[in-house]
Amino acid sequence: MSKVKLGILGAGKLGTTLGRLAIQNGYEVLIAGSKEKEKIMLTVEVLVPGAIVMTKEELVKESDVIILALPLGKVSSIPTVGLENKIIIDAMNYWWEVDGKQRIPHDPNLSSSEYVAKSLNSNRVVKAFNHMGYHDLEIESHSETIKAIALAGDNDLDKEIVSKLIEDVGFKPLDIGLLKEGIKLEPGSELFGANLVEKEFNEIFKNL
Ligand SMILES: NC(=O)c1ccc[n+]([C@@H]2O[C@H](COP(=O)([O-])OP(=O)(O)OC[C@H]3O[C@@H](n4cnc5c(N)ncnc54)[C@H](OP(=O)(O)O)[C@@H]3O)[C@@H](O)[C@H]2O)c1
Question: Ligand 1 in contact with 69 (CB < 6 A)?
């Protein structure tokens, strides 16, 4: 399977970490922030050397796979033109300090990734990279005991591509099922923050 062109929306802590790991492992990485390109040029030059800075609109058009690494509450600012056929990796979480006191989405039975899929009118959303902190991602990439990164989504082929990315950046992909299952990886779940090997992860998952 050849490597996809990876776009990252959000040049913050998670976006720059994932961008750096992807470049180190042979991916072409495009990255965009919330504003003009100039605002993130220096950050990207220092933290994600080799990544190409674009506007969000350009990035959506150019990427094969797009990682959402921005605040969940900003989902409506993601350009939807050109997004139709793209695989979207939702790495976002509802975080009240950033997103406000009322949970997004308001419906407690809806996973945040289902909400993202609805908001973006996409059936190609795969939840991944949301449960491990950015510093752990950095440290654990290709570690001796390979750590698990869970993914959830409704399209098996898309999940294969995302699994390959997870593997390439040095983790063990663990498919936990449909997109709605992603609720088990959200803040409040025992698996949120998980920095575990597959066996440890599955021990917890089976009791959720
Ligand atoms: N930090 C972690 O360890 C971690 C781990 C897993 C998942 N996550 C999730 O990943 C997301 C990002 O977290 P973070 O810690 O990286 O936050 P962060 O450091 O605050 O970075 C968020 C970035 O998103 C940018 N942004 C806002 N709206 C945007 C838009 N419409 N298009 C492109 N970029 C936009 C922000 O730019 P401006 O500053 O210009 O607004 C900022 O650079 C959150 O949903 C979080 O829950 C975080």
Answer: yes
pLDDT in tens, 22-69: 999 999 999 999 999 999 999 999 999 999 999 999 999 999 999 999
Element (H, E) at 208: none
126-137: per-residue pLDDT in tens? 999 999 999 999
Angle made by CA atoms 168, 172, 173, in degrees to the nearest 5: 90
Residue 207 alpha carbon to ligand 1 centre in Å? 31
* Residues 48, 18 contacting (CB under 8 angstroms): no
| Domains of the chain with CATH codes | 5-205 (3.40.50.720)
Question: Ligand 1 pocket, 187 CB below 6 A?
Answer: no
Helix, strand, or coil (residue 47): helix
Q: How far is the CA of 98 from the centre of ligand 1 (A)?
A: 10
**Any ligand 1 atom below 6 A from CB of 123:** no
For the cut 80, the answer to whether the pLDDT of residue 206 exceeds it is: yes
pTM: 0.98
Distance (angstroms) between ligand 1 centre and the Cα of 10 equals 5
* Best residue for ligand 1 mutational test, from 13, 43, 78, 96 (most atoms within 8 Å of Cβ): 13
19: left (phi over 0), alpha (psi -120 to 50) or beta: alpha
Decide if pLDDT at 185 tops 90.
yes
Average pLDDT of 177-196? 98
